[in-house]
Amino acid sequence: MTERDERRLASSKPAPWNDPKTRAVVFQALTVVVVGYVFYVIFQNTLYNMERRGISTGFGFLHNQAGFGVLMSLIPYNETDTYGRTFFVGLLNTLLVSGLGIVFATVVGFLVGVARLSSNWLIAKVAMVYIETLRNIPLLLQIFFWYYVVLQALPSARQSMSLGKSLFLNIRGLYLPAPVLNDGAGYIIFTAVVAVIAAVIIAIWANRHQEKTGNRIKVLWLNLSLVVVAPTLVYFIMGRPVSLDYPTLQGFNFQGGMRMIPELMALLWALSFYTAAFIAEIVRSGILAVGHGQTEAARSLGLRSGQTLRLIIIPQALRVIVPPLTSQYLNLAKNSSLATAIGYPDLVSVFMGTTLNQTGQAVEIVGMTMAVYLTISLSISGFMNWYNKRVALVER
Amino acid sequence: MKTTIRVLTAAAVAAVAFASVASAATLDDVKARGVLSCGVNTGLPGFSQANDQNQWVGLDVDMCRAVAAAVFGDASKVKYVPLTAKERFTALQSGEIDLLARNTTWTMTRDTQLGLNFAGVNYYDGQGFLVNKSLGVKSAMELNGASVCIQAGTTTELNLADYFRQHHMKYSPITFDTSDQTIAGFQSGRCDVLTSDRSQLYALRIKLADPSSAEVLPEVISKEPLGPVVRQGDDQWFNIAKWSLSAMINAEELGVTSANVDEMKSSTNPSVKRLLGVDGDFGKGMGIGNDWAYNIIKQVGNYSESFERNVGMSSPLKIERGLNALWNQGGILYAPPIR
């Protein structure tokens, strides 16, 4: 090919309407405009129809007094607070059950997943039965099972099961003594925080030291005693400023102490055990994805099987595990909205349920609720992606 | 290119679909569909419940049937849509149902801010408390600290909070979606008290394994005028619902029943003549036949018949007429005259 030919080829750009690049840009822009217009029309139409039918719109209702009670709230709430506050009450309850659920589901899921691959026949089969049963029963049924079958079989408040004089279990929930912080208790919390920070620093320093020199300094016991002993010492020095508030039976129910309501327990167990079954399968596939040669190599180095799993297999398996695990966390957070079936006051039950009904502001409230779940899901997914990047294989 | 065409088509369809929601003439829609879409309770004895032949029966169901009789001359042309308290208003606002007859309390917020119109009162009620007899509670004032089962999305929730606050008492609310779940919570002992409209308490009590184990406390803590609801902005349809109810009440007052309605057609009483369409053109103003009230009474009965059959002495609920008796018989039931 001569130089002229080459130049001719380079300059012979097709006409704009035949250029695939131009066409792609034009059509995509067109699509954006059309989609945008569709949403605009839907939005305007909704507003117009609502106004024509005399349905009031806007977010002003959030400042009105709610006037209804909520079973459980993590922030102070009573009937005179606003609808805006009911939103946060519901939101925090949703975050609580999702957060606890994710932790429990992960722990149970990892244990069952590893057990499923155990060389012990019985353990492997029990794990298999667990996975296959829970994975294949609809979650709503499991929630009903825990709430209506297991928990409702508990005795009434007056015949509650008890452990000593401090722990009571009955159909109204699990009652525990609550710590009451008196003067000077702040020092204990302060010491505990300082001790934890110190322990973390020591651990990091020990790791660095090992990386540099190859010598491992055992800091586990030092750290544990630091975290436990220091606050305990301060507790006695300050003259034992923490007392316990015991639950006592007064009138209809137990008063005082801490209470875990059965609705929360039922929902938490159902969500955790259900999701754990899926996580177990993900863990199993992750472990199986690590070549058997890795195990053999680890063994030949003289590592014990526990060490092999912890130091060789799991870190590599995580690369396979983390992306599908993210989906399970998202599912768990979204499934927590089934709370409304058993009366746990989550966001859907309190805000999209009662508040929506008292105010009738369906469009605003459903919109806000959707935005919340979107935010929760995107946050989980963002965090897990960040974590995935950290554990991903770095090729050098 | 294919994608673009698809998007454009979708856009056009969506625009048309959303534009058409705005049509107002419910009567035309109902007639074109050939059946009235009526929102009812998911299962409340006496008010709306599917019986063992799988037919909907109850006081509220009779309201649906009355409107269907007025529009079609056939009370059976109703499609029943069972709704929870939380779903009911959205279903009506969005046009999924034409009429809501689901023991719904007439309140100012609902009337003025939700785009709804209340077509009258078909049952005057008040909120009360159902407790287990074994608790030994004789008055609502002894309920301090109680756990209370409630149904979500009702005026009940607000009244309860008001009542306990006013009397400086505490309570913990356990809120369920349907009345069945609520009564299940009460039966299992999850809560000490179940609160609801008193008519509902009687209805739910007969669902208990042992109805005599529970009793309704004497206090009535609120006014609960229950009635049929339609969408705002369609006066013709509003009139049809309103006058269907009025026709049943007027029929009782005039002594017209489903049994004697045919012979009453030859009555000399001018009020009866107007009611049954012998005199005047009263159906015309609503866009329906002049025999509209005749059809209601013939097929559904007058208010008293409906009341006795569903919730009164000849039903398992055995509720006294009380406030729901006619104005000239000690109650407050009063319908405007047909003239």
UniProtKB/TrEMBL annotation, chain A:
Subcellular location as annotated: Cell inner membrane; Cell membrane
Keywords annotated in UniProt: Amino-acid transport, Cell membrane, Membrane, Transmembrane, Transmembrane helix, Transport
Main location: membrane
Top-level lineage group: Bacteria
Biological processes, Gene Ontology terms: amino acid transport
Transcription found in the keyword field: no
Record domain ABC transmembrane type-1: where: 91-384
Pfam families in UniProt: BPD_transp_1
CDD domains given in the database record: TM_PBP2
Cellular component GO terms, alphabetical: ATP-binding cassette (ABC) transporter complex
Residue ranges crossing the lipid bilayer per the database entry: 24-43, 55-75, 87-115, 136-154, 184-207, 219-238, 266-290, 365-387
GO MF assignments: transmembrane transporter activity
Keyword Kinase attributed: no
Membrane topology: Multi-pass membrane protein
Cross-referenced PANTHER family: AMINO-ACID ABC TRANSPORTER PERMEASE PROTEIN YHDX-RELATED, MEMBRANE COMPONENT OF AMINO ACID ABC TRANSPORTER
Similarity comment: family membership: Belongs to the binding-protein-dependent transport system permease family. HisMQ subfamily.
Protein name: Amino acid ABC transporter membrane protein 1 (PAAT family)
Organism field: Varunaivibrio sulfuroxidans
From TrEMBL, chain B:
Signal sequence interval, chain numbering: 1-24
Pfam (any one): SBP_bac_3
GO terms for biological process, alphabetical: amino acid transport
InterPro entries to which the protein is assigned, alphabetical: Bact_solute-bind_prot3, SBP_3_CS, Solute-binding_3/MltF_N
Superkingdom of origin: Bacteria
Record-annotated Solute-binding protein family 3/N-terminal domain positions: 35-264
Keyword set, alphabetical order: Signal, Transport
Similarity section: Belongs to the bacterial solute-binding protein 3 family.
PANTHER family in UniProt: AMINO ACID ABC TRANSPORTER PERMEASE, AMINO-ACID ABC TRANSPORTER-BINDING PROTEIN YHDW-RELATED
The protein's name in its UniProt record: Amino acid ABC transporter substrate-binding protein (PAAT family)
Protein species of origin: Varunaivibrio sulfuroxidans
